[in-house]
Amino acid sequence: MDKYFINRRSVRNFTDRPVESSLLNEILTAAAKAPTCGNMQLYSVIVTRSPQRKAELAKQHFSQPATNAPVILTICADFNRFTRWCQLNNADAGFDNLESFISATADAIILAQQITTIAEQEGLGTCYLGTVTYNAPEIAGILNLPELVVPVACLALGWPDGPGIETERLPLEAFVHEETYRNDSDQEIISLFKSKEQYPANIQFVKENNKDNLAQVFAEIRYPRAMNEAFSQKLKDYLQSAGFLK
Amino acid sequence: MDKYFINRRSVRNFTDRPVESSLLNEILTAAAKAPTCGNMQLYSVIVTRSPQRKAELAKQHFSQPATNAPVILTICADFNRFTRWCQLNNADAGFDNLESFISATADAIILAQQITTIAEQEGLGTCYLGTVTYNAPEIAGILNLPELVVPVACLALGWPDGPGIETERLPLEAFVHEETYRNDSDQEIISLFKSKEQYPANIQFVKENNKDNLAQVFAEIRYPRAMNEAFSQKLKDYLQSAGFLK
Description:
The structure is a homodimer. Chain A is α+β, with helices and mostly antiparallel strands. Chain A has helices at 3-7, 21-31, 51-60, 80-88, 98-121, 136-143, 172-175, 186-192, 194-198, 200-208, 214-222, 225-241; strands at 43-48, 71-78, 125-128, 149-158, 176-178. Chain A starts with a helix and ends in a 5-residue tail after the last helix. Chains A and B meet through helix 1, helix 2, strand 1, helix 4 and helix 5 of A and helix 1, helix 2, strand 1, helix 4 and helix 5 of B. Strand 5 of chain A pairs parallel with strand 1 (43-48) of chain B.
């Protein structure tokens, strides 16, 4: 097995070296051979290189360090292109609904991950900006997205300035279930997360945040309920205005 | 660039040769090094090998040929494990909402695509079963999924019985936009889909379905509005009962 997969790390710091258009296009062409729902390719990729537009996007991604990358790729669930093609062919396109949004989201994220893998194997560094759905309407405004086009993944892309930081993972048995979903006991759940809690960077993380334990850092500092619920309402409103929810 | 990416094809026919557990576990371990939202690993993988359970799942996937694979992987957006861990640590877990569902869906699909790539590079064949969200509640029943666990990707996995079928892709300019979303004219949209319409298998597809053009086959036979809307309503109800929508 290619050691790349087990050794890969996300990269958040990039050199000034530009990512050549020819290389990026080669990566995107190959990535588009990834699986896609009914071969409909329900995605679009917006390539941002302009410093001014990157600064506008960075603000919507809470200025996280990776937004300094030379290229930002915003990958969208896109049923606009397909719907227009249907309409131009006198076909009744019924893709303005939740099921179609989820299908297009899967297509877009499969593409995003294929771009990640190919780019990293070419020596580039990448990092997902998980904030993309928080401020999706503002990002849509900056990128001029029409209806039925919703940003669902965002990748910072560039040549790495140093290696990325290694992060721990749960043991395999935490997320793999044989035949049916295992009904873990409380004690088993505690045990599955033990090595994560004991990971030195996570111990440090708890200390810095003045919390009792790692779960509290996640649930109360990084992803607090009030924030999740506010962004959920905003996302629901946006999916409605983008035409995917009635 | 590794020629694998540009040459890969999905595989729908498999030999009887089993997929060894040790190989599958090696693939899953490596795949879990894929990026994940805040390193929360918001996914689970249910491994189905039992012929009886595979037959039950196949019915929910409309008995498509790939369901004959030796292994079916159902990959779920999972906030159940993380929520239980938070609760056991006296942390207020607020992940019962749409934003959290979308984050977990992204995690699950990134993982699914990483499994696909690693498995294919090991010589295995894979095929996504795009039907997974159509009958998500029935699949959840078969696999005993608890609340906050929703199947969002499904992979058939096995040793290929012959090569997969090559499929065409849109030209790069169809889905790549520089700086902002291009507002294509009707003529440009028609032109972007021209090579797809002229692809021999697609010409055949239109003939077999007695339609005027390819767009009508997609919008009226394969993915008709009434079906999309019925499955959307069902998915919305299911996301509510699974705890991700209020």
